[in-house]
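Q: My labmate handed me this sequence with no annotations at all. I'd like to see what the chain might look like in three dimensions before we decide whether it's worth expressing. Could you predict it?
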Amino acid sequence: MLRSARKSVLPANTHGYEFGGPLGAFVITLGLPFICYLAAFLCNDISGCPIPSALHPRTLTLAKLRNEAGWPQDGLKGLASFRVTGFVLAYYLFSLILQAALPGLVVQGVQLRSGGRMEYKFNAFSSAVTVVLIAAAGTYLHGPEFALWTFIWDNYIQLITVNLGIAFLLATFVYYRSFSVKSGNKNKRELAAGGHSGNIIYDFFIGRELNPRITLPVIGTIDIKAFCELRPGMLGWVLLDLAFVAHQYKLYGFISDSIILIALFQSFYVFDALWMEPAILSTMDITTDGFGLMLAFGDLVWLPFIYSLQARYLAVYPVQLGLVGIAGVLAVQGFGYWIFRSSNNEKNRFRTNPEDPRIAHLQNIKTKSGSKLLTSGWWGFSRHPNYLGDWIMAWSYCLPTAIAGYVVKHGSPVGMSHGDLVDGQGFFSGGLAKKQVLQGEARGWGMAITYFYVLYFAILLIHRQMRDEEACKRKYGDDWEEYKKKVRWRILPGIY
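A: Here is what I predict for the chain of 496 residues:
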């Protein structure tokens, strides 16, 4: 592409590095996949959660670590499988077919810098319901031995690897293809404001093209970013949770109230997001960020495999909360959801219909760009009240695991039989081996895994808030400073 032509497709308002620049992007690119594998190997049904050697690092040897973590006997080759790859690709293909075949709501996206709007077809909710109904039919016929559930549990590590590979391949494809974006193209392709620094590592991670699309035979045009945002990974999160529920029942013959709560909460969160699918058009992911490894990995790997860690833990070590415990967790979830959904609804109503009587009374300031910023209601409470609700809900995903941690002992005590759970000790048979699961010295240490989500999510939301406010500062200039004087607090009034 000629230099003059290349300049014409670059956004007028660019900005500097985020995520620590190229070095930060490199560390995240290598570090986060490592964390996914680490969580999978250090918390298992072979030796415990965490594995015993993690509690006694001085006794750690490579051979001992391999045995306790369940490292594949054939080494690195065992992390992947052609069979698993085939099934995962079939899942992605089925998701594409559902998007193309099922009726959906056609919506215009936000105004692009180059003019015009992209068109989106939304039917993620009906697509997900279709998949869940198929899974429900299979479970009705085969119980916890339904092939989908056993496949997920038996190939958990390989599933991480395959989805990680898909994320890297997608990121590579859209990065290479982004160099074909030309000024005035009829497909309204644009480069993202922060994705053309010229540094390969950073641009590959953050994403060069804003709205990459591809036309597939029979299926038609697919918006890659919108597809990944709410389809394979979000539904995958639900399917993982359900597989873990089935595994607990398979081991113990019952389903604990704790894993029921987590599966219900997280499924509700996912299906609520799918039902409100058009709302993604106003999010930073769609309007601002390019599609690169950051979103591909986050959508397809990090979200389903890290967000489901609590259910995976409870599949092996059931926790019974009782009525008081259930009431407490429900209160946390309900309070967080009330803040999250009511604040988002208020914002969406204000953007789509400022005359709506439910929000017409709210105060706002008009910016020089023509936009209006709310300064009362939820958005006068703080600049990101929805983030607060989201974080409170995160606690309800972790609290059901209680004071987490367990050790797997091979062999059973006298008087215990398959499926028994007495005084926090479980017993089940795995193949030819008999296993006893108890907390022992691991009690409390497992919280580093089951409560990791709360810590990570707080960091994510604060970082997202900082990115969002930096973008608003560039967009609104002095009006943003005036807005901050009226709405002082970022997320939690009085604290942050």
